[in-house]
Write a structure and sequence with these properties.
Length: 362
Amino acid sequence: MDVGSFAYTLVAFLVALGVLIFVHELGHFWVAKKVGVLVQRFSIGFGPILLRRRRGETEYAISALPLGGYVKMLGEEDDSEPDVAAQPERAFQRQPLGPRAAIVFAGPAMNFLFAFLAYAAVFVFIGVETPSNTTRVGGVSRGLPAETAGIRADDVIRAVDGKPVSTWAELSSAVVASGGKTLTLTIDRGGAEFTLPVTPKLQENRTLLGETMPPVYRIGIEASHDWKQVGPVHAVGLAVQQTWRVSKLVVQGMGAMFVGRVPLRELGGPIAIARAAGQQARQGAKYYLMTMAFLSVNLGVLNLFPIPGLDGGLLFFFLIEAVMRRPLAQRHREIAQQVGLFVLVTLMLFVFYNDIHRLVQG
C-alpha cells in the first residue's frame, strides 16, 4: 500500500470511527442531561487528553486512544465521592433505576438510530441498490482467474464456450459446472467483442453468516448493481427493514461463532474496519455512508452484550437490581468489571491477531 492510499484509508477510518463514537456517547450524554445528571466530561477516545474545552459544567475532550469514548458522570462509579455530597440529586448512582437504565441504553439506541437515518438518507436521495441479473461485470477480485485473464468491471459476458448467456444466473451456473475446465468467454467491451480463456478455480464457499459450505468453482467476478428510485415513504420503510435485517444478521453471525459454526478467525478488528472503510470511501459517498450504518449497527449490538465494561453489562446489573430490589454490592461489581475488562482486552488482542494474520497472508 502506497503512502497516499494508506493516508486515505486512515482518514476514512478515523472519520467513520469518530462519528460512530460521537453518536454513541451523545446518546448517553443527551439522556443524562435530560434526567438531570451532571456530566463532568464528554470524551472521544480514552487515555491522556490531547485537547479539552469547558463549556458550562461539562468538559469536552479528545483523548489519545481513538478506539472508544466515554461520558463521565457525577457519582457514576462511587456515590461516596466528595462532590456527590454537594449535589446528591445530580449523581448517577442516586437516580432511580429507570433513568439510569435509560442513560445506559441510550448509547446503543443512538447507534441504531444513526444506522436508520443513514440508510434512509441513501434510499431517499439516491435510491435503493439492487443486484442486476444481467451479465455485466460489477467488480473483479484481485488475484483470481478473471483478473489474470484480463476481465474488467463493466465488461458484458455474452457467451460461455460459444453458448449465449443472458442472465447472471446462467453465467454463474456455467462457471460452477465447469469442474475447473478452461472456459472461453465472449466479452463485449464498449461494443467490441472478443474472447478470453479463463480457468475457474476452486474457492471456499460461505453463507451470508460466514458458515463454511462445500467449495465451488469461481473465476472472481461479481454482479453489477442498479440503483432504483423510490418514494420517500417507501424509502423510510426500507430503512427500517434494512436496520432490522442487519441487526438480526449481526446477532445471528455472533451466535454462529459462539456455537462454532463460524470460525473465530472471521472476527475482524480495527485494521479490518479501516480497510473496509477505505475501500468503500473510494467507491463513493453512498457506499461509505452505508458502511458506516452497518458498523453502527455492529457497535450497537456489541454494546448490548451482557459483558461488564459494556453497556449491556450495566443493564444486566440493573436487571439483577430490579429482581433483588437492591443494588449489587460494590465489591461484586468491581470483580465483575475486572473480569469483563479481561474478556474485552483478550478479545481485542485476538482480533488484532486476526487482522495482522490477514495482512500477512494477503
